[in-house]
Amino acid sequence: MKKDIIFKILTIFSDIDGKNAESQSLTQLHCPPLCGICCSTSRKVEASVIEMLPLAEELFRRGEAADWLERLSQVGDTAPCVFYQPDPLISGNGRCGFYSWRPSVCRLFGFASVKDKNGKPILAACIYQKKAFPALVESAGKAVAEGLVSLNFTDFSLQFSGIDPYLGTRLLPINRAARIALEKYGLEMQMADSQHFSKGDR
Ligand code: SF4
Ligand code: SF4
């Protein structure tokens, strides 16, 4: 796997995090502490394969790739994300096991906007944020509508597509995207190794 592709993806993640921090600082919108309901219960989290490549690289670096591949091969497309680590003591609480490597949807969910049929941005807040902080969600929604904050899903999706129109555009269930990314990363490592050895044999 070319290092520059991973670097580009990580740069977009960093940009998302920076813009999200600015946006949250302005709106004060946040999630209830330790809430992990979206990760633990959602069966619809989707990501592009390209966004899972940094995680694949990290799993290979840790020597955990084979174990995770085995686990990912045993779950179906509607299973919750395998990377979620539930809090053993408090139901509904937990955390992402690979927070620094999570894909863009996990960075943006609850804070980013979508465009309505007229192209105007609408805050896509999470129902648990709405329940916990209705006034904050309302004021954040106004800030988005007035253009004071701009954090849009589509803007970042286009950047991933720009890196690789196929792997960066098609959204798959997150576990499947992670499995394909691991397989792709492993295959490219093998190919790089075999090229290295065949050059060395000459
Ligand atoms: S996005 Fe919603 S479900 Fe997910 S952590 Fe925030 S409040 Fe909880
Ligand atoms: S990658 Fe992390 S943040 Fe994203 S769904 Fe899985 S556990 Fe949640």
Give the topology, please.
Layout: H1 3-27, H2 37-41, E1 46-48, H3 49-62, H4 65-73, E2 84-86, E3 94-96, H5 104-108, E4 113-115, E5 121-123, H6 127-132, H7 134-145, H8 153-163, E6 171-173, H9 174-201
The structure holds iron/sulfur cluster (SF4) (2 copies).
Averaged pLDDT? 92
Q: Tell me the structural class.
A: mainly alpha
Q: What value does the Rg take, in angstroms?
A: 19 Å
Residue share in helices? 55-70%
Count of DSSP E strands?
6
* Structural domains: how many: 1
Q: How much of the residues is beta strand, in percent? A: 5-15%
What does this structure look like?
This protein is mainly alpha-helical and 202 residues long. It has one domain (3-201). The protein has helices at 3-27, 37-41, 49-62, 65-73, 104-108, 127-132, 134-145, 153-163, 174-201, and strands spanning 46-48, 84-86, 94-96, 113-115, 121-123, 171-173. The strands form three sheets. A two-stranded antiparallel ribbon has the order 1-6. The chain has a two-stranded antiparallel ribbon with strand order 2-3. β2 (84-86) and β3 form a beta hairpin. α1 packs across α3 (49-62), α1 (3-27) packs antiparallel against α8 and α3 (49-62) packs across α9 (174-201). Bound molecules: iron/sulfur cluster (2 copies). One iron/sulfur cluster binds at residues 39, 45, 81, 83-84, 96, 102, 106, 174.
